[in-house]
Amino acid sequence: MIIAICEYPFKGPHRTVGNLEDRPGAYAVFSEFHGKYYLLDVDCSDEVKKAIENHERSKCWEKYRKGLIRYAVLYESDFPSKPKEEIVKEARKRYVTMPCGGGPR
How far apart are CA 11 and CA 25, in angstroms? Predict the structure, then answer.
């Protein structure tokens, strides 16, 4: 399945990080509640899986989740035309109400 974030095709939602890879990319963290997805955070890393597993804002995700935590990812190799940092910056600018990591940086 694909979840569009700022028109970028993030793959997900994944139920666990076990389905993710340690490759460079951008990722989104969602809360799933009654079949709806609520965006909690967007970030990027050179090692997506490790970054999510050890993220400094994971307590924020837990605090603001309405249901189950889900993940979506856009690996750089799947979308090489734009750097992952620019995708995250664009998403944070558009979704300023994200409770964790929202707003431009």
Answer: 11
Alpha carbons 96 and 105: distance in angstroms, whole number: 11
pLDDT score, position 27: 97
Instruction: State pTM to two decimals.
Output: 0.92
Rounded CA-CA distance 84/90 in Å is 10
Q: Exposed e or buried b for every residue in 6-34, given b needs 16+ CB within 10 A?
A: bebebbbbbeebeebeeeebbbbbbbbee
Name 104's Cβ contacts closer than 8 Å, sequence gap at least 6: 89, 92, 93, 96
Judged by DSSP in three states, 96 sits in coil
pLDDT digits (tens, 9 = 90+) for 3-33: 999 999 999 999 999 989 999 999 999 999 9
